[in-house]
Amino acid sequence: MNIFILNTGRCGSTTFIKACQHISNFSAAHESRCTLIGEQRLSYPENHIEADNRLSWILGRLDQVYGDNAFYVHLSRDKNTTAESFARRNNFGIMKAYREGIFFQETQNDSALELAQDYIETVESNIALFLKGKTHTLSFSLENAEQDFRKFWTSINAEGDLEAALSEWNTSYNAS
What we know:
Layout: E1 2-6, H1 13-20, E2 27-30, E3 48-51, H2 59-66, E4 70-76, H3 79-87, H4 93-102, H5 112-131, E5 137-141, H6 145-155, H7 162-167
Parallel strand pairs: 1-3, 1-4, 2-3, 4-5
Helix pairs in contact: 3-5
């Protein structure tokens, strides 16, 4: 079974994958196919855990390929903290793409924080709609990472070093 960590970004997805790399019966990667297009974009190996915030923009295609035959984790973090993190990255990455590619705002009319809040609301809504009716899902809050990761571990019948996986949550990866 494949597992997808759906998220906005800036919410612990890198740490999630670092923790998953202590699971022996699944492979795990962060944004491993984000440069590919077409069928290759979603051709993940079997028994693989993938975190990629860009999946929230291709959920229709993800559903066509995996449907209800995958396990989906909705990873989130306090929205204000996430928005503040995105606002600090306003001029590159997904925030630049959202501002210039979705809204065509060559000059910034809204504050970076307002744009980040709008982005988060959009992505969270996309994920929530996608997960409706899916039978293998788990809500995961960064603020409850240790408890939620234990639930995740049990839900997927993970094997490996749980204590080493839990210790990854003590490190901030990819902090801005």
